[in-house]
Amino acid sequence: MTTTRFAPSPTGYLHIGNLRAALFNYLIARQQGGSFILRLDDTDPVRSKPEYANAIREDLRWLGLEWDREETQSARLGRYDEVAAELRAAGRLYECFESPTELDLKRKKQLNMGLPPVYDRAALALTEAEKDTLRAERGSYWRFQLDHKRIEWEDGILGAQSIDAASVSDPVLIRADGQVLYTLASVTDDTDMGITHVVRGLDHVTNTATQIQIIEAMGCKLPSFAHHSMLTGAQGEALSKRLGVLALRDLRAAGVEPMAILSLMARLGSSKPVELRKHIDEIVKGFDLRDFNASPTKFDEADLGPLSARWFHTVPAADMASELAAVGVPADKAEDFWAAIRENINTRADIATWWDLCQNGTTPEIAPDDLDFVREALASLPPRPFDQTTWPSWTAEMKAKTGRKGKGLFMPLRKALTGSPHGPDMKRLLPLLQVMPEV
Question: 176 and 297: one domain?
């Protein structure tokens, strides 16, 4: 069975950049009738916070990305110790003692000599007596010993990949304070949980190469890997500097709709145009990793507003029943009210604004030259109840009486009734207006 995962660290809020991994893995699982796992990478006890974990769950549910099961890495620390012991016994995990300062000096020396800054494996030459001495002086950490050969895989987006393991430092799997690092925890989880597809950002390509060797050393089956492009800002600038303002909860607070975000992110960076979808099931059906490439992908949050507005234009009143009821729209008026205003909705907050206009009226906007005309028109309004024939018959009568036509006829009346030159079709809106202006 196809099994995918999204493995965020609960050390901050989800942002538009790491949403891509969540969405792609979700879509693959749903498309193939598989399982989607939310796995919280909470092995850092200092930075991981329950409030961030809760925020991640909340954001995913808001987007409709429901997971089939949840795992937390902090509950699996014993399992990581077991795998580390197995790798030590196999001679693939070795103890190192260099301080960060010493490692930095080594890297600088290698760069000055024109050599790649790769760990020199000096720890492998230490005798047991030397190790004992060093242990008494300082802490140690553990590296995985790579086989110096080419690591190859067929990437679901990038195609054939080949990395020379000799050009990569042996990865650190366990820190000096005993904390298990991402690489060991992720590989252990992926193999134990039967992950079949791993889709993540292009910045993980080197991680994938080293993880392939670790998985092979564990005697486990490799998943399929795919690496999507990295997002940039609209002008190609680094998006990382702006992620603080692109948190999903901030976009939600700004009124952006989930389907606007999902529709954009499911096509951004692909060969297909962005198409607004009404439901995530439509996105699932049309998703294909082969449509994507490795080129940097420009993201502009300004695209989300128009997509949100267009989504409202297509949504039936039944789908907005709770929002309409929340602002006081009676059930018997919900259909007519929504039909009148939905093409003028940019965010859900606009619903209350339009209902307030319908219930309480507004301050009319009337030019001095239009005052007598507006007064005469309001005095000529037929008695209630109004319907959708009221506006065209009323304006036709005023045209005949005054000779006004076009904008000179319609605009003064709209501005008098709504306080704005723009808004819903007056044929639909007029029957909903409970208060006429006093002029």
Answer: no
